[in-house]
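Lab notebook: predicted structure, single chain.

Context: the supervisor wants predicted structures on file for every construct in the current expression panel, including those that have not yet been purified. This is the next one on the list. No modifications to the sequence; it matches the entry in the shared construct table.
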Amino acid sequence: FIGIFLSFSVLCRPNFFPAATILFFYGIFIELNDRNFKNFISITLGYSTILLSPLHNYYFGNSIVLFTQANSHFLFSPSDYLIAIKELSLLNFKSEILYKVYIQLIDWNPLYNIHRIIVLVLISFFVLLYKQKLFIYVMFLCVISQHGVLLLTHAGSRYAYLAWLLTILLF
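Prediction complete. Output recorded below exactly as produced.
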């Protein structure tokens, strides 16, 4: 059921894919480490139901895509962030890409929620500085991956719930 639930969460909300995949690999790592091959196969078969999405898209849309046409959801590429840093270093504050990045960052975390950034910095500090259990590292990877999704795609409202919920839980 773990694999099926992770797969179902991704089918309902494709932006959960990074965190669900990290949790899936953590689950199969635990089962392989315990030499519980029956559960390993069960989790793998359960998570393989994620492949229903491309089958659905092929049958109904005549195209093979994993979830959706993702390029329509990406606001800009990671290289745009590098361009924005370059524009910032040149003190070109009237750059269009710099303005887009600024708006994206404000959507990701409005200034009145600065406490969330403080929590994220504290989590990063303690997870990276002190030795933690494997589960904490896995949850930290989930947090970072979900925030990465937010920085590249829609960062507001329902898209941000998982990232900030995981952040607060890890805190």
